Protein backbone atom coordinates (compact mmCIF):
# COMPACT_ATOMS: atom_id res chain seq x y z
CA UNK A 1 0.00 0.00 0.00
CA UNK A 2 1.37 3.39 -1.02
CA UNK A 3 0.69 6.80 0.49
CA UNK A 4 -1.00 7.83 -2.77
CA UNK A 5 -3.46 4.91 -2.44
CA UNK A 6 -4.59 6.04 1.01
CA UNK A 7 -4.84 9.77 0.27
CA UNK A 8 -6.61 9.15 -3.04
CA UNK A 9 -9.50 7.59 -1.11
CA UNK A 10 -9.86 10.87 0.81
CA UNK A 11 -9.48 13.10 -2.24
CA UNK A 12 -12.18 11.19 -4.11
CA UNK A 13 -14.58 12.68 -1.55
CA UNK A 14 -12.76 15.94 -0.83
CA UNK A 15 -10.67 17.06 -3.86
CA UNK A 16 -7.80 19.40 -3.03
CA UNK A 17 -9.22 21.93 -5.52
CA UNK A 18 -11.92 22.68 -2.94
CA UNK A 19 -9.53 23.99 -0.32
CA UNK A 20 -9.59 27.72 0.38
CA UNK A 21 -6.85 29.91 -1.11
CA UNK A 22 -5.22 30.43 2.30
CA UNK A 23 -5.14 26.72 3.11
CA UNK A 24 -2.32 24.17 2.82
CA UNK A 25 -4.02 20.80 2.53
CA UNK A 26 -2.33 17.82 0.91
CA UNK A 27 0.79 15.75 1.56
CA UNK A 28 2.98 17.96 3.78
CA UNK A 29 5.72 15.52 4.73
CA UNK A 30 6.86 12.41 2.85
CA UNK A 31 6.46 10.90 -0.60
CA UNK A 32 3.34 9.69 -2.39
CA UNK A 33 5.31 6.58 -3.40
CA UNK A 34 6.25 5.55 0.15
CA UNK A 35 4.97 2.20 1.44
CA UNK A 36 2.50 2.53 4.31
CA UNK A 37 2.68 0.31 7.39
CA UNK A 38 -0.39 1.84 9.03
CA UNK A 39 -2.37 5.05 9.52
CA UNK A 40 -2.87 7.27 12.56
CA UNK A 41 -5.76 9.75 12.36
CA UNK A 42 -5.88 12.98 14.37
CA UNK A 43 -7.25 16.50 14.39
CA UNK A 44 -3.93 18.25 15.02
CA UNK A 45 -0.40 16.96 14.38
CA UNK A 46 1.75 17.75 17.41
CA UNK A 47 4.89 16.11 18.78
CA UNK A 48 2.98 13.70 21.01
CA UNK A 49 0.94 12.50 18.03
CA UNK A 50 4.11 11.72 16.05
CA UNK A 51 5.47 9.89 19.11
CA UNK A 52 2.21 7.92 19.24
CA UNK A 53 2.64 6.95 15.58
CA UNK A 54 6.18 5.75 16.30
CA UNK A 55 4.94 3.68 19.25
CA UNK A 56 2.13 2.12 17.19
CA UNK A 57 4.49 1.36 14.30
CA UNK A 58 2.60 3.38 11.69
CA UNK A 59 4.19 5.78 9.21
CA UNK A 60 1.30 7.86 7.84
CA UNK A 61 -0.53 10.50 9.87
CA UNK A 62 -3.78 11.90 8.48
CA UNK A 63 -4.88 15.17 10.11
CA UNK A 64 -7.58 17.75 9.63
CA UNK A 65 -5.40 20.77 10.44
CA UNK A 66 -2.20 21.25 8.39
CA UNK A 67 0.84 21.36 10.68
CA UNK A 68 2.54 23.59 8.08
CA UNK A 69 0.31 26.55 7.33
CA UNK A 70 2.89 29.15 6.41
CA UNK A 71 6.32 28.70 4.86
CA UNK A 72 9.03 27.43 7.20
CA UNK A 73 12.35 29.26 6.81
CA UNK A 74 14.30 27.30 9.43
CA UNK A 75 14.26 23.78 10.84
CA UNK A 76 16.04 24.24 14.15
CA UNK A 77 13.29 23.11 16.51
CA UNK A 78 12.52 26.57 17.86
CA UNK A 79 8.75 25.93 17.94
CA UNK A 80 6.33 23.00 18.02
CA UNK A 81 5.75 23.10 14.25
CA UNK A 82 9.44 22.72 13.43
CA UNK A 83 9.94 20.07 16.12
CA UNK A 84 6.95 18.07 14.88
CA UNK A 85 8.10 18.14 11.26
CA UNK A 86 11.69 17.25 12.21
CA UNK A 87 10.52 14.32 14.33
CA UNK A 88 8.33 13.02 11.50
CA UNK A 89 11.15 13.26 8.94
CA UNK A 90 13.65 11.59 11.27
CA UNK A 91 11.28 8.62 11.63
CA UNK A 92 10.15 8.44 7.97
CA UNK A 93 6.58 9.36 8.87
CA UNK A 94 4.42 11.02 6.21
CA UNK A 95 1.88 13.69 7.17
CA UNK A 96 -1.22 14.43 5.14
CA UNK A 97 -3.94 17.02 5.86
CA UNK A 98 -7.45 17.52 4.48
CA UNK A 99 -8.73 20.79 5.90
CA UNK A 100 -11.08 23.23 4.16
CA UNK A 101 -11.58 20.82 1.27
CA UNK A 102 -13.14 18.39 3.77
CA UNK A 103 -15.12 21.29 5.26
CA UNK A 104 -16.60 22.05 1.85
CA UNK A 105 -18.13 18.75 0.76
CA UNK A 106 -21.24 16.81 1.63
CA UNK A 107 -20.31 14.06 4.03
CA UNK A 108 -17.63 16.34 5.45
CA UNK A 109 -17.23 18.29 8.69
CA UNK A 110 -20.40 20.40 8.69
CA UNK A 111 -22.46 17.47 7.44
CA UNK A 112 -21.25 15.42 10.42
CA UNK A 113 -22.35 18.22 12.78
CA UNK A 114 -25.79 18.03 11.14
CA UNK A 115 -25.83 14.26 11.78
CA UNK A 116 -25.11 14.76 15.46
CA UNK A 117 -27.67 17.54 15.93
CA UNK A 118 -30.28 15.72 13.85
CA UNK A 119 -30.93 18.07 10.94
CA UNK A 120 -33.03 17.24 7.90
CA UNK A 121 -33.29 18.81 4.43
CA UNK A 122 -29.64 19.88 4.50
CA UNK A 123 -28.21 22.41 2.07
CA UNK A 124 -24.83 24.04 1.65
CA UNK A 125 -24.86 27.36 3.53
CA UNK A 126 -22.44 29.20 1.23
CA UNK A 127 -22.09 27.40 -2.15
CA UNK A 128 -18.92 27.90 -4.18
CA UNK A 129 -18.93 29.80 -7.47
CA UNK A 130 -16.72 29.44 -10.56
CA UNK A 131 -16.64 25.68 -10.07
CA UNK A 132 -18.98 24.43 -12.79
CA UNK A 133 -18.14 23.98 -16.45
CA UNK A 134 -20.33 23.15 -19.43
CA UNK A 135 -19.04 20.75 -22.07
CA UNK A 136 -20.44 20.97 -25.60
CA UNK A 137 -19.44 18.39 -28.18
CA UNK A 138 -20.66 17.12 -31.55
CA UNK A 139 -20.99 13.38 -32.21
CA UNK A 140 -22.24 11.24 -35.12
CA UNK A 141 -25.74 9.99 -34.34
CA UNK A 142 -24.75 6.34 -33.98
CA UNK A 143 -22.09 7.13 -31.36
CA UNK A 144 -23.97 9.75 -29.33
CA UNK A 145 -25.15 7.39 -26.58
CA UNK A 146 -21.71 5.80 -26.17
CA UNK A 147 -20.06 9.20 -25.75
CA UNK A 148 -22.81 10.43 -23.44
CA UNK A 149 -22.54 7.36 -21.20
CA UNK A 150 -18.75 7.70 -20.98
CA UNK A 151 -19.10 11.32 -19.85
CA UNK A 152 -21.63 10.34 -17.17
CA UNK A 153 -19.35 7.54 -15.97
CA UNK A 154 -16.52 10.08 -15.64
CA UNK A 155 -18.70 12.24 -13.37
CA UNK A 156 -20.45 14.68 -15.71
CA UNK A 157 -24.15 15.44 -15.63
CA UNK A 158 -24.89 15.67 -11.90
CA UNK A 159 -27.34 18.39 -10.80
CA UNK A 160 -28.45 18.18 -7.17
CA UNK A 161 -30.02 14.78 -6.59
CA UNK A 162 -30.10 13.99 -10.32
CA UNK A 163 -27.44 12.34 -12.46
CA UNK A 164 -27.01 11.57 -16.17
CA UNK A 165 -28.23 15.09 -17.00
CA UNK A 166 -27.58 16.35 -20.53
CA UNK A 167 -29.21 18.09 -23.46
CA UNK A 168 -29.02 17.01 -27.10
CA UNK A 169 -30.13 18.49 -30.40
CA UNK A 170 -29.62 17.08 -33.90
CA UNK A 171 -27.93 19.01 -36.67
CA UNK A 172 -25.42 18.76 -39.49
CA UNK A 173 -21.67 19.03 -39.13
CA UNK A 174 -19.30 19.85 -42.00
CA UNK A 175 -15.58 19.27 -42.42
CA UNK A 176 -12.89 18.62 -45.02
CA UNK A 177 -9.78 16.65 -44.16
CA UNK A 178 -6.32 17.64 -45.34
CA UNK A 179 -3.65 15.43 -46.92
CA UNK A 180 -2.36 14.09 -43.60
CA UNK A 181 -5.76 13.17 -42.16
CA UNK A 182 -7.59 9.87 -41.88
CA UNK A 183 -11.29 10.82 -41.62
CA UNK A 184 -13.62 8.47 -39.73
CA UNK A 185 -16.32 9.33 -42.27
CA UNK A 186 -15.99 10.94 -45.70
CA UNK A 187 -12.89 11.26 -47.86
CA UNK A 188 -9.92 13.54 -47.29
CA UNK A 189 -9.86 16.52 -49.55
CA UNK A 190 -13.63 16.45 -49.97
CA UNK A 191 -16.21 18.51 -48.10
CA UNK A 192 -18.33 16.14 -45.99
CA UNK A 193 -21.68 16.72 -44.31
CA UNK A 194 -22.54 14.44 -41.37
CA UNK A 195 -25.70 14.09 -39.27
CA UNK A 196 -24.51 14.81 -35.75
CA UNK A 197 -25.86 15.29 -32.23
CA UNK A 198 -24.82 18.30 -30.16
CA UNK A 199 -24.42 17.09 -26.55
CA UNK A 200 -24.29 19.49 -23.60
CA UNK A 201 -23.56 18.52 -20.01
CA UNK A 202 -21.96 20.05 -16.91
CA UNK A 203 -19.20 18.98 -14.53
CA UNK A 204 -17.20 20.38 -11.58
CA UNK A 205 -13.73 21.73 -12.34
CA UNK A 206 -11.78 19.04 -10.49
CA UNK A 207 -13.09 16.48 -13.01
CA UNK A 208 -11.98 18.42 -16.10
CA UNK A 209 -9.06 16.13 -16.93
CA UNK A 210 -11.13 12.99 -16.42
CA UNK A 211 -14.02 14.32 -18.51
CA UNK A 212 -11.78 15.35 -21.42
CA UNK A 213 -10.01 12.00 -21.33
CA UNK A 214 -13.33 10.13 -21.48
CA UNK A 215 -14.51 12.28 -24.39
CA UNK A 216 -11.35 11.82 -26.47
CA UNK A 217 -11.23 8.08 -25.75
CA UNK A 218 -14.82 7.38 -26.78
CA UNK A 219 -15.43 9.88 -29.57
CA UNK A 220 -14.90 8.25 -33.00
CA UNK A 221 -13.45 11.29 -34.80
CA UNK A 222 -9.74 11.79 -35.38
CA UNK A 223 -10.12 15.44 -34.37
CA UNK A 224 -12.79 15.96 -31.71
CA UNK A 225 -14.67 19.28 -31.77
CA UNK A 226 -15.71 20.40 -28.28
CA UNK A 227 -16.10 23.57 -26.22
CA UNK A 228 -15.76 24.07 -22.46
CA UNK A 229 -17.44 27.08 -20.82
CA UNK A 230 -17.02 28.37 -17.28
CA UNK A 231 -20.48 28.86 -15.73
CA UNK A 232 -21.48 31.54 -13.23
CA UNK A 233 -23.96 29.18 -11.53
CA UNK A 234 -23.17 28.30 -7.92
CA UNK A 235 -22.30 24.67 -7.27
CA UNK A 236 -24.86 23.95 -4.56
CA UNK A 237 -23.21 20.61 -3.74
CA UNK A 238 -19.99 22.22 -2.49
CA UNK A 239 -19.24 25.09 -0.12
CA UNK A 240 -18.73 26.14 3.47
CA UNK A 241 -21.25 25.41 6.23
CA UNK A 242 -24.65 23.76 6.05
CA UNK A 243 -28.22 24.60 6.99
CA UNK A 244 -31.14 22.33 7.81
CA UNK A 245 -34.18 21.84 10.01
CA UNK A 246 -34.85 19.99 13.24
CA UNK A 247 -37.56 17.34 13.08
CA UNK A 248 -39.53 19.42 15.61
CA UNK A 249 -39.03 22.92 17.07
CA UNK A 250 -37.03 23.06 20.30
CA UNK A 251 -36.81 25.49 23.20
CA UNK A 252 -33.60 27.53 22.72
CA UNK A 253 -32.14 26.73 26.16
CA UNK A 254 -32.92 23.05 25.67
CA UNK A 255 -31.22 23.15 22.26
CA UNK A 256 -28.13 24.88 23.66
CA UNK A 257 -27.90 22.39 26.53
CA UNK A 258 -28.28 19.52 24.10
CA UNK A 259 -25.47 20.62 21.78
CA UNK A 260 -23.24 21.30 24.79
CA UNK A 261 -23.64 17.67 25.79
CA UNK A 262 -23.31 16.30 22.25
CA UNK A 263 -20.04 18.08 21.55
CA UNK A 264 -18.64 17.86 25.08
CA UNK A 265 -18.19 21.62 25.28
CA UNK A 266 -17.04 22.97 28.64
CA UNK A 267 -19.28 25.94 27.87
CA UNK A 268 -21.38 27.30 25.01
CA UNK A 269 -20.95 31.00 24.42
CA UNK A 270 -24.13 32.43 22.96
CA UNK A 271 -25.94 35.67 22.24
CA UNK A 272 -29.22 36.67 23.85
CA UNK A 273 -32.10 34.24 23.47
CA UNK A 274 -33.89 36.13 20.71
CA UNK A 275 -36.01 33.25 19.41
CA UNK A 276 -38.99 31.53 21.04
CA UNK A 277 -38.27 28.27 19.23
CA UNK A 278 -35.36 26.76 17.30
CA UNK A 279 -36.24 25.10 13.99
CA UNK A 280 -33.77 26.13 11.28
CA UNK A 281 -30.12 25.58 12.21
CA UNK A 282 -26.97 26.73 10.39
CA UNK A 283 -23.64 25.10 11.23
CA UNK A 284 -19.99 25.40 10.31
CA UNK A 285 -17.11 23.41 11.75
CA UNK A 286 -14.13 25.36 13.09
CA UNK A 287 -14.10 29.14 12.64
CA UNK A 288 -17.40 30.07 11.02
CA UNK A 289 -17.94 33.71 11.94
CA UNK A 290 -17.45 34.84 8.32
CA UNK A 291 -20.67 32.98 7.45
CA UNK A 292 -22.85 34.76 10.01
CA UNK A 293 -24.49 37.11 7.50
CA UNK A 294 -25.15 34.17 5.20
CA UNK A 295 -26.84 32.31 8.08
CA UNK A 296 -28.98 35.36 8.82
CA UNK A 297 -29.97 35.78 5.17
CA UNK A 298 -30.98 32.11 5.01
CA UNK A 299 -33.35 32.71 7.98
CA UNK A 300 -31.56 30.41 10.42
CA UNK A 301 -32.73 30.62 14.04
CA UNK A 302 -29.31 29.66 15.41
CA UNK A 303 -25.77 29.42 14.05
CA UNK A 304 -23.59 26.72 15.60
CA UNK A 305 -19.86 27.17 15.06
CA UNK A 306 -16.69 28.23 16.88
CA UNK A 307 -14.12 30.99 17.36
CA UNK A 308 -16.45 34.00 17.44
CA UNK A 309 -14.70 37.17 18.62
CA UNK A 310 -16.26 39.50 21.18
CA UNK A 311 -17.48 42.15 18.74
CA UNK A 312 -18.79 39.55 16.30
CA UNK A 313 -21.48 38.58 18.81
CA UNK A 314 -22.96 42.08 18.37
CA UNK A 315 -23.44 41.34 14.66
CA UNK A 316 -26.28 38.94 15.48
CA UNK A 317 -28.43 42.02 16.30
CA UNK A 318 -31.21 39.86 17.69
CA UNK A 319 -31.89 38.26 14.31
CA UNK A 320 -30.16 34.99 15.12
CA UNK A 321 -28.69 33.15 18.11
CA UNK A 322 -24.96 32.54 17.87
CA UNK A 323 -23.87 29.33 19.62
CA UNK A 324 -20.08 29.08 19.90
CA UNK A 325 -19.31 25.50 20.95
CA UNK A 326 -15.55 25.78 20.41
CA UNK A 327 -13.23 25.10 17.50
CA UNK A 328 -11.92 21.73 18.63
CA UNK A 329 -15.34 20.64 19.83
CA UNK A 330 -16.99 21.34 16.47
CA UNK A 331 -14.31 19.47 14.48
CA UNK A 332 -13.39 16.57 16.76
CA UNK A 333 -15.56 14.10 14.84
CA UNK A 334 -13.52 14.74 11.69
CA UNK A 335 -11.37 11.85 12.87
CA UNK A 336 -14.36 9.52 12.48
CA UNK A 337 -14.88 10.73 8.91
CA UNK A 338 -11.27 9.91 7.98
CA UNK A 339 -11.52 6.54 9.70
CA UNK A 340 -14.70 5.62 7.84
CA UNK A 341 -13.28 6.67 4.45
CA UNK A 342 -10.02 4.72 4.81
CA UNK A 343 -11.41 1.56 6.43
CA UNK A 344 -14.23 1.34 3.89
CA UNK A 345 -11.71 1.36 1.03
CA UNK A 346 -9.08 -0.72 2.85
CA UNK A 347 -10.96 -2.85 5.42
CA UNK A 348 -7.98 -5.03 6.39
CA UNK A 349 -5.46 -2.26 6.88
CA UNK A 350 -4.12 -0.99 10.22
CA UNK A 351 -5.91 2.30 10.94
CA UNK A 352 -5.94 3.98 14.37
CA UNK A 353 -7.60 7.07 15.80
CA UNK A 354 -5.18 9.06 17.95
CA UNK A 355 -5.67 8.84 21.69
CA UNK A 356 -4.11 12.30 22.14
CA UNK A 357 -6.42 15.17 23.08
CA UNK A 358 -4.84 18.02 21.13
CA UNK A 359 -7.28 20.72 22.25
CA UNK A 360 -5.02 23.59 23.41
CA UNK A 361 -7.89 25.33 25.27
CA UNK A 362 -8.75 24.45 28.85
CA UNK A 363 -11.38 25.81 31.24
CA UNK A 364 -11.50 26.14 35.01
UniProtKB/TrEMBL annotation:
Which InterPro entries does its entry note?
Answer: DUF34/NIF3, DUF34/NIF3_bac, DUF34/NIF3_sf, N-reg_PII/ATP_PRibTrfase_C
Q: Which domain of life is it from?
A: Bacteria
Q: Which UniProt keywords apply?
A: Metal-binding
In this chain, a divalent metal cation 1 is annotated as bound at 65, 103, 327, 331
Specify one Pfam family.
DUF34_NIF3
UniProt binding sites for a divalent metal cation 2: 64
One GO MF term attached to the UniProt entry: metal ion binding
Cellular component terms (Gene Ontology) = cytoplasm
What Gene3D superfamilies does the record point to?
3.30.70.120, NIF3 (NGG1p interacting factor 3)-like
Family listed = Belongs to the GTP cyclohydrolase I type 2/NIF3 family.
Assembly and partners are described as: Homohexamer.
Name of the molecule in the record: GTP cyclohydrolase 1 type 2 homolog
Amino acid sequence: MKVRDIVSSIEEMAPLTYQESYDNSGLLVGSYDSDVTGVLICLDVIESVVEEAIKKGVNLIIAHHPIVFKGLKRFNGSNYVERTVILAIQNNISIYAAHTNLDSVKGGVSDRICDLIGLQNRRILSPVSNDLYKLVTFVPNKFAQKVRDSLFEAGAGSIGGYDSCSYAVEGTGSFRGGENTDPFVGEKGELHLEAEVRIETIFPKHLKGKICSALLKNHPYEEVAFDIYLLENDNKQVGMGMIGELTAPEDPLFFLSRIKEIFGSACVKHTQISKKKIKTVAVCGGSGSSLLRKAISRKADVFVSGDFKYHEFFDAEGRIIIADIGHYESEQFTRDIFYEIVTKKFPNFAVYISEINSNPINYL
